[in-house]
Amino acid sequence: MLGRSSTCLGGLFDLDGLKSELVKIKDETSASDLWDDKDRAQTLLQKQTEIEKSIENFEKVERDFVSAKELSSMISKEGDPDLEKELIVEFNKIVEGVQELEIICLFSGEADSCDAFLEIHAGAGGTESHDWAEMLQRMYIMFAEKNGFKLTLLAELAGEDAGIKSVTMKISGDKAFGWLKTESGVHRLVRISPFNAAGKRQTSFASVWIYPVVDDNIEIEIEECDIRIDTYKASGAGGQHVNTTDSAVRITHIPTNIVVQSQSNRSQHKNRAEARSMLKARLYELELRKKEEKLQQSNAQKTDNGWGNQIRSYVLHPYKMVKDHRSSFETSNPDAILNGGLKEMILTNLVYHLKKEH
Q1: What backbone phi and psi angles, to 5 degrees, belong to 338?
Q2: 168 - beta bridge partners?
Q3: Which of 17, 50, 231, 309 has the fewest beta carbons closer than 10 A?
């Protein structure tokens, strides 16, 4: 038997703890006033479904393990080739089940089930770094498309000659923040620059910042005296109205120097609401990181956009390689990564960070 306190990934799957949490949630969802707060009700029911699925997966692996153990005992007595084939089938079921449990363990963080805001900022280097920032934007757009996430462009600042200086996007879908949270950091590109007339190899940097979209059930207090709100004309696509009226909104949180902006809507009111949501999410993410003791200073990762601070290198010349400097994940196929094939690398990083934390 796997045991009632069995764990996966070195002690992280607490079956008894999940069952206790499920009992509490069921008590709350059975309350007569559940739907007085629709958002809270939906959150509770979603959590209940996730926990029930986790318990079901664990108990299925446990049943398969018992079945395989019995088969193994019969084979040792009878030596039946047909039973040996059946044991292989049972073993493969167990492997698949354990892999599913490992995935559940990887997305057990407090905000992992949330949607995500994604920011990209070009580093120093002018046109080359602007182009690199746009390449990263394309990479995450393709990752979102491949994995069934919905992507919404919130704000974008174009480069003078090519690419982008910065972009903010919202990525919505099952465990979007959980999937993307380890992407925060400085990304380094080495290639022969198409913008260099001498055809020299060049190194560029861009920073990626991921933070969770939080709902109204999570209380983050924002004092009006702590924020500065600026309005300005939006840039980029959107039509004459967007580009000629002060519909875009930028909010600066003075105590933390966090800046968020939204220009995706024609309405200044809607952009203001979106920017407030982003600010709330950034402040929540900051508190999460402090609580989990994972953080360097909140803005240090974002501002140190250069040598020695990169989390990942993408080398296109003189050889081809993508290497994550935290988990040491490495591949010689950067085209696959830049076309959104991030899943294996992200899972490797999630395992690395989980083991590091525990």
Answers
A1: -70, -15
A2: 119, 155
A3: 17
Q: How far apart are CA 114 and CA 305, in angstroms?
A: 27
pLDDT tens digit string along 13-64?
Answer: 677 878 888 899 999 999 888 888 887 788 788 888 878 888 888 888 888 8
CA angle 177, 182, 183 (to 5 degrees): 90
Question: Rounded distance, CA 7 to CA 96, Å?
Answer: 16
CA distances from 338 to 138, 314, 345 (A): 8, 9, 12
Q: Please say if the pLDDT value at position 241 is more than 60.
A: no
CA atoms of 256 and 88, how far apart (whole Å):
57
As a CATH number, domain 15-106 is 1.20.58.410
Instruction: Look up tokens 């905000």; give the residue.
Output: 111
Q: Which has the higher per-residue pLDDT, 302 or 177?
A: 177
pLDDT in tens, 287-301: 777 765 544 444 445
248-253, strands of its sheet edge to edge = 227-232, 248-253, 258-262
- Does this chain's domain 15-106 share its CATH topology with 116-357? no
Contacts for 347 with CB less than 8 Å, ≥ 6 apart = 103, 106
| E strand or H helix that includes residue 172 | strand 164-172
Cβ–Cβ < 8 Å for 315, 203: no
Q: Which CATH architecture has domain 116-357?
A: 2-Layer Sandwich (3.30)
Question: Tokens 């809607």, residue?
Answer: 270
pLDDT of 293 reads 53
User: Which amino acid, residue 118?
Assistant: L
Residue 64 or 145, more confident: 145
For the chain, the straight-line distance linking the first and the last C-alpha, in angstroms and rounded, comes to 25
Q: H-helix or E-strand containing 151? A: strand 150-158
Domain segments of the chain: what residues? 15-106, 116-357
d(CA 42, CA 20) in angstroms, rounded, equals 20
